Predict the 3D structure of the following.
Amino acid sequence: MKSIVSKAQAYLEQEKNLRNEVDEEIKDFELPKIVVVGCGGSGNNTIRRISQMGITGATTIAINTDKQHLLRTKADKRVLIGRSITRGLGAGGYPEIGRKAAELARNVLEELLSNADMVFICVGLGGGTGTGSAPVVADIAKKQGAITIAFAQMPFKVERARIGKAIAGLNELKEICDTVVLLDNNKLLEYYPNLPIDAAFSVMDQLVAETIKGIVSTIAEPSLVNIDFADVKAIMGHGGVSVMLVGEAKAQEKASAVVRDCLSHPLLDVDYRGATGALVHITGGNDLTLKEAEDIVENLTFSISDNANVIWGVRIDEEFENLVRTVAIMTGIKHKEFVGSCETLEEWEKENKVKGSTNTKEPKERVFVKSSAKEKRNTIIDRL
Ligand SMILES: Nc1nc2c(ncn2[C@@H]2O[C@H](COP(=O)(O)OP(=O)(O)OP(=O)(O)O)[C@@H](O)[C@H]2O)c(=O)[nH]1
Ligand SMILES: [Mg+2]
């Protein structure tokens, strides 16, 4: 008599064939509308990267006041905003111009985002177009009833005056968006000081692009352990300030290796101990075992709150033979733990004894403190 395991395997083979025969009507039924918007130069670069990689299940929109930059950006839809005030030449570092440009294009943006269920907004904070327009886009998306998630990159410390503008922009985004995934460009300087600036930026853009693509494919493509739109909504619908982790590992010991890779990624080195939610998505080949997948989730979420809402999914992709990739978003991070001592523009101005966000004085203290996450990470890595 066949063992239960071999019978189950035989059925699995039959089911694989069945999956390919899904009725077209069912396939198209109620797919959520997901839109990824890139605001300003940095946001456009992320969109260009996502478009190059190819994304199924989401449309991409690039918006900018800078015509030249927009022309270089590949997206499903490109929108030149504020042409009457900037003549297509950019917002020159003034967020108020970026905001006005977006407000003038509100009708067009409303139409593009109509009935959206989930909107991702990519922005490098500190400049004019992105910092000013991203909150307007977020506001439009929220009013359409969409879950609104921003991926915001904080500027380099040497960009000085831009830090104040970025904090102001970040606070606006925090007010409007359901989740703001924060990234720190300063880490590029710390870890890739000798890379040409374009190449360094492209590392950050790649990480953001892969994470968004990971979340979208989680929802849009069938998975073995499925995460559906409602699951993502449960975590990202009130995620607050969040961080992301990305890792990849090959061959032997891939479960512990991928966790180690996630936790030691130099650009994503932040303290997520207080996280109140986690969304973990694993992609692996047919060789990925249930135990390996569970170990990855267990080790990645080991240090977060006991009551945290943890949702995980697994997708099998034949091209991932002996390879496993993990993308995780940890939500509900305390802003202060992440951004250091300055939570508001007022605090930052007080600390630096300046008024207005156009100062050029260097902050007395690093705005981004190096987190103590490393120690904790080492503890987790030791466990592996
Ligand atoms: N990761 C990443 N960050 C970028 C990139 N380009 C710029 N930045 C960062 O994002 C901040 C804002 O820059 P931009 O996006 O070029 O500014 P903008 O929104 O186009 O604003 P204006 O040009 O003033 O209209 C900068 O201060 C940089 O710190 C990029 O390609 N990738
Ligand atoms: Mg620009």
The beta strands are 34-39, 59-64, 77-80, 118-124, 147-154, 179-184, 240-250, 277-284, 309-316, 323-331. Confidence is low (pLDDT under 50) at residues 337-341, 352-372. Residues 40-41, 66, 69, 90, 127, 129 surround magnesium ion (ligand 2) (CB under 6 Å). The CA atoms of residues 71 and 78 lie 8 Å apart.
